[in-house]
């Protein structure tokens, strides 16, 4: 894979990881539709290091504040910050456990185009419907245990391609009563530890002779586009809902089905 191809793949990863349209589906389906070979799950997760950089950059102030408050002298702020650290850690367990237990099965699911098409439509509809019929919701920087656990368990479902990690966690957050922006913000905070862990686990599967230049190009592109996608989504959700994303998911699923029929 050339550096240019890797950068394009990284840009695709950065865009689709944070928009609620499923990065895993795009990373497999788009190259397949273009007649290009699938890069492999390990390479996909390596690109997640780029999106991890995007998350850390976009929410650097939040992480710094949480760390400073957790070690600070103000008792109320210290307890609040430490409580949120604990909730983030516990909420990350379901996805981490699912990833370790179902790692081989996920590799097989990734190649099931009918499953991806179905998940794109089903979870796209859930995202739109929950947001459409729920009240505007609460703007909370530190959601309670119930909300955190709901979003953490939902995150485990993202192991199935087509679900979308950001989409399903935002859906759970909205169902639990958070506003669109608050649900998206906590979704991205929750993504940070699981993305870091997945990157560590999957790096062992990268071939020893993988070219470093293309990999670096992909990671950098994923990081840059990821930051833009995060900021763009937050601005979008400040004034609009998820109808456009649902429509896109249905259209993408239709393309997959059309390609299957053409075989």
TrEMBL record:
The keyword ATP-binding does not apply. InterPro entries: UppP (IPR003824). Keywords: Antibiotic resistance, Cell membrane, Cell shape, Cell wall biogenesis/degradation, Hydrolase, Membrane, Peptidoglycan synthesis, Transmembrane, Transmembrane helix. It is an enzyme of class 3 (hydrolase). It comes from the Bacteria. Its EC number is 3.6.1.27. GO terms for biological process: cell wall organization; peptidoglycan biosynthetic process; regulation of cell shape; response to antibiotic. The chain crosses the membrane at residues 46-64, 84-102, 108-130, 182-201, 213-234, 240-261. It is a multi-pass membrane protein. It is found in: Cell membrane. GO terms for cellular component: plasma membrane. One of its GO terms (molecular function) is undecaprenyl-diphosphatase activity. It holds the Pfam family BacA. It catalyses: di-trans,octa-cis-undecaprenyl diphosphate + H2O = di-trans,octa-cis-undecaprenyl phosphate + phosphate + H(+). Coiled coil: none annotated. Belongs to the UppP family. Catalyzes the dephosphorylation of undecaprenyl diphosphate (UPP). Confers resistance to bacitracin. Bacitracin is thought to be involved in the inhibition of peptidoglycan synthesis by sequestering undecaprenyl diphosphate, thereby reducing the pool of lipid carrier available. This is Undecaprenyl-diphosphatase. It comes from Eiseniibacteriota bacterium. The lineage of its organism: Bacteria, Candidatus Eiseniibacteriota.
């Amino acid at each position: 894979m050339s550096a240019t191809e890797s950068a394009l793949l990284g840009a695709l990863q950065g865009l689709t990881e944070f928009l609620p349209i499923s990065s895993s589906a795009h990373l497999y389906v788009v190259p397949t539709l273009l007649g290009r070979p699938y890069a492999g799950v390990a390479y996909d997760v390596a690109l997640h290091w780029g999106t991890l950089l995007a998350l850390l950059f976009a929410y650097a102030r939040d992480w710094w504040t949480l760390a400073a408050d957790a070690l600070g002298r103000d008792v109320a702020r210290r307890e609040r910050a430490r409580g949120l650290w604990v909730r983030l850690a516990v909420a990350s367990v379901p996805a981490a456990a699912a990833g370790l237990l179902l790692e081989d099965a996920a590799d097989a699911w990734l190649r099931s185009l009918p499953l991806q098409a179905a998940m794109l439509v089903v979870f796209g509809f859930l995202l739109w419907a929950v947001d459409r019929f729920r009240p505007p919701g609460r703007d909370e920087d530190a959601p309670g245990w119930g909300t955190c656990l709901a979003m953490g368990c939902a995150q485990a479902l993202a192991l199935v391609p087509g679900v979308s990690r950001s989409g399903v966690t935002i859906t759970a957050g909205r169902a639990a009563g958070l506003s669109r922006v608050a649900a998206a913000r906590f979704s991205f905070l929750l993504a940070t530890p699981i993305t870091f862990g997945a990157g560590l686990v999957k790096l062992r599967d990268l071939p020893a002779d993988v070219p470093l230049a293309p990999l670096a190009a992909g990671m950098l592109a994923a990081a840059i586009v990821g930051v833009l996608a995060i900021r763009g989504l937050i601005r979008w959700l400040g004034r609009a809902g998820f109808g456009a994303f649902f429509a896109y998911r249905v259209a993408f699923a239709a393309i997959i089905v059309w390609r299957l029929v053409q075989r």
